[in-house]
Amino acid sequence: MEIIAACAGALMKIVDEIEDINMLNLQEFKEYFQTLCTVFIGLWLYNDVYMSIYAILCMIPASYLVDQIDNVYWKTLIPIPFITFLLKMNTLEWLGVGDLIQRLLIIIVYISVVFIEHKLFPEETSVAKITSRVFSIIGYLAIIYFTSGLSSASSIQSLFIFFASYMAISVVSKVFLDDKKVILTE
Fold first, then answer.
1. Does residue 105 have a pLDDT over 60?
2. Distance CA 78, CA 136 (A)
3. Of 79, 119, 147, 186, whose CB has the highest number of CB atoms within 10 Å?
4. Rounded CA gap, 86 and 52, in Å?
């Protein structure tokens, strides 16, 4: 499960970077990466119905509000969480109020991180944004570690592995692959 979440996050960022900066001149392979991205996101959402719920309640609205769904490919992914939710909604189970509160806190943390990063670092590339993403990865790993005993731990782990891999590809592409070489010039 963790490898699927990691691949989904990494491929999502790779597709975004091919689109934004033509990472490693991979434009001719863009459709291949988009297909892999679609498959892994579909598998990730299908494996955990709560990921589909998070995507519907958080990721899609937050991404729209900060203009991250900016091309046709990202818009074509929008139905996937709805489809995976409908296919897996019979696997939802009530684990108590504590579990519900944990899942609501995940939603609050995710939305807060998206809006804070968007407000503090609206530009695509900067030393501050790259640094914040490195600290985000560390924070996500800490969240995974400290929530391992909770009833929603598998969902928390899946979600934050997805984000950590997304951020890791972002950092690598901005530091080593972007033509601007922000770290070296600022």
1. yes
2. 25
3. 147
4. 9
